[in-house]
Amino acid sequence: MSEAKELNGLRERIDAVDAQLLELISERARCAEEVAQVKRAAGADSDLYRPEREAQVLRRVQAENKGPLSDETVARLFREIMSACLALEAQLRIAFLGPEGTYTHGAVLKHFGRDTALAPMNSLPDVFREVESGSCQYGVVPIENSTEGMVSHTLDLFVQSPLKVCGEVLVRIHHHLLSTHDEVEQIKRVYAHQQALAQCRRWLDVNLPKAELIALSSNAEAARHVAGEDGAAAIAGDTAAELYGLKMLRRNIEDHPDNTTRFLVIGTQAVPPSGEDKTTVLVSTPNRPGALHRLLTPLALNSVSMTRIESRPSRCVNWEYVYFLDIEGHADAAEVKAALAGLRQESDLFRILGAYPRAVL
User: Fold this and answer.
1) What is the dotted CATH code of the domain comprising 91-173+260-267?
2) What is the value of pTM for the model shown?
3) Which terminus of the chain has a lower count of CB atoms within 10 Å, N or C?
C-alpha cells in the first residue's frame, strides 16, 4: 500500500471516530440537561454543581485510562466536557484575585473548566465578599506555596467568614519568558511581579545579565504591558501567554521546578464525601501548658492523619492563637467524626471550615 493510501485510510478512521465522539458528547450533554430538569422539579436548583461527583468522574476516567494519552490529559479533557455540560444547566460565576492571566486565573480554569463566568477581583477580601453576597457561587483563593509557605491573609479571612471550603486545586508554578520578539537577545527589559523576578533570579543572571528588571503588581499585568512594548519581555504563565497572544521565548525558567501553589475553592454549600477527601478545621485553645498536645490527642486516638497545622494570632487576646488543621478523610466518616468530637471538647473555638474532595488534577 502506498503512503498516500495508508494516510487516507487513517484519516477516514479518524473522521469516523470524530463523528462517534461528537454523538457521544452530545448524548452526555442531553443527559446533563435531563439531570437539571429532575433537580429543578425537586426544587434543588442550587444543587446543580456537585464537586464530589465531578471528582469521582475524574478519578474513574484516570483509573480506566489505558493510554496513550496520560491520565492528566484525559482528566483535563473530561473536565472541559463536564464544564460545557454544566453550562447548559447553569453557568457558574467564579470570583478570584485578578487580573485575568494570573496563576489564580489558571487555577479557576483547571478546576472549573472554561465554560464559567469569570469575576476577577482587586483583593482577597473582595473575593470572599462576592461569594458571601451571592454575586458569585464560588471563589478561588491561594492558601499555600511549596516554597513561600502559607498565605496568611487568606487564613485571617477565614476566621471572620461564614464560607466553607468546597475543594482544592494544585497548580505547578512554571514561569515562562514571554514576548512579541523571537530571540532572547532582543530583550532589554523584563517585567514581572517582584516574587517571580526573585524566583527566576539565577536564570536571569545567566541569560539576561544586562536586562533591566522591572517589578509590577502581577505577572498578568507584566504580560499585558509587554504586548505593546518593543524590546520587552514578561515572566508569566501559560494563561497569560494565551490571553495576550505572546510567544514563549523560554519555558520553565524558575529556579525551583517543583514550586507548587495550593488554592482553595470557597462557597456556601457543604460537600458530601467523594471517597478521597480532606477536612479543614479552625480551632482555638487557651494558652496553657500541654494545650496543643491535648488538642491533637483525639486525632491520634482515632488514627486520623493531620497533614497540615498553621497558627495565626487570635486578634482577641494577646499571645493566644487560632489553629488551622488539615486532616485526611471526610468529616462525615466515622473515625474523623469521632476525632472532631474530641477536638471540639478541647477547644474554646471550633469550626469545620469544610470537607471536600482531594485535588484530582
Assistant:
1) 3.40.190.10
2) 0.90
3) N
